[in-house]
Amino acid sequence: MGEIVLREKISRLPEAENRKEGNSAARTPARPTVGSAGVSDEEHGHYLDPRAAQILRENGYPLPREHRAHLATREELSRADLILPMTLGQARALRPMLKAAGADPAKVHLWREFDGTAPLFPRGVYAPGAPLGEDSGAPGSRQENFYTSDGRFDVPDPWYGSVDGFRKTLKTVENGAAGIIDYLYR
């Protein structure tokens, strides 16, 4: 199995990466490669948010030793079999990055497609009928809705809130990870 690249900033991603790694090992001997990168370079080099680290420790997850935020590379995007943005805004930002990398946009799915919140869009988030399909009427601006996480397709972003927001986000991430594993190994 190829690589799964999760697109997110440092407040949600380590939770997702840890959860995905833990679940895949428990369910099947074929273990996917799980990587992480961002759709912007603003957090480049930063370690995970201390509140995320606290929640991971409280829930028995090992902390990633070498996780540092970075902008997704063309190689990562073209090599990945599944790309999982946490928000529609991030999916919008990925579209030109995928084109520049020559990567198939059909491999982009929203995290919420796998936690039971949103329907699964079999041909990806950009396909006709999907949230960012050409027929969706969704704005194409990179800035439009980039940092919001209150939409029905977005994983809540705990960055500007309290540690309780990180607890809620972890539950969303755990639910999505279980759905991703079912999707990959069905």
Unreliable runs, pLDDT <50, ≥5 residues? 6-11, 24-29, 140-144
Q: Which structural class is indicated by helix and strand composition?
A: mainly alpha
Gyration radius over CA: 15 Å
Share of helix, binned: 25-40%
Shape: globular
For the biggest β-sheet, the strand order reads 2-1-3
In whole angstroms, how far apart are the ends?
A: 14 Å
Average pLDDT level: 81
Question: Element order, helices and strands?
Answer: EHEHHEHH
Describe the overall structure.
This protein has 186 residues and is mainly α. 35% of the residues lie in helices and 9% in strands. The chain has helices at residues 13-27, 50-58, 74-79, 88-101, 163-184; strands spanning 3-7, 33-37, 80-85. A three-stranded parallel β-sheet has the order 2-1-3. The two termini are 14 Å apart. Residues 6-11, 24-29 and 140-144 have low confidence and may be disordered.
List the helices and strands and how they pair.
Blueprint (H helix, E strand, L loop, with lengths): L2 E5 L5 H15 L5 E5 L12 H9 L15 H6 E6 L2 H14 L61 H22 L2
Parallel strand pairs: 1-2, 1-3
Q: Which features characterize this protein?
A:
mainly alpha, 3 strands, 35% helix, 9% strand, globular
